[in-house]
Amino acid sequence: MKVDYVNRRLAFVALVACLTLPSLSWAQSAIDESPSAGAMMGDLLVARPIGVVMTAGGTAAWLVSLPFTILAGHAGEAAETLMIGPAEATFMRCLGCRETGYTNKDINRNRERKAAAED
Predict the structure, then answer these.
(1) Distance (Å, rounded) from C-alpha 75 to C-alpha 97?
(2) Number of H helices, E strands in the chain
(3) Residues 83/62, Cβ–Cβ less than 8 Å
(4) What is the dihedral of CA 82, 25, 105, 99, to 10 degrees?
(5) Domain ranges of the chain
(6) Are 82 and 58 a contacting pair, CB within 8 Å?
(7) CB atoms within 10 A of CB 88
(8) Whole-model pTM?
(9) Measuring CA to CA, which residue among 10, 106, 94 is closest to residue 47?
(10) Tens place of pLDDT per residue across the chain (119 aa)
């Protein structure tokens, strides 16, 4: 009985370590717009699911706080912080990138290839 409790506890600690280590290593390195395969996998398997959960949780929190933020006149600010920020960080960046926003790398590469083929 006690061994089962210890095994569960060790499994939980290992899970938490696996989820936090990629974010710690990303925080230490410089921002890179050409992420490695490891960064892409970590982003796909760890960061994006967490971002989806944070977006859904932020939306729920915004809905609960909406009557109060409307009375205070800060509903837009609350929406930006609780919903839009996490949604942009989750859905508006390339896989493995840390900076929010769309990149035109593929479009630019295709233009360069077409220009090189025409010459």
Answers:
(1) 30
(2) 6, 0
(3) yes
(4) 30
(5) 35-118
(6) yes
(7) 15
(8) 0.58
(9) 94
(10) 555 666 676 666 666 666 665 554 444 444 446 788 998 899 999 999 999 999 999 999 999 999 999 999 999 999 999 999 999 999 888 888 888 776 666 667 778 888 888 87
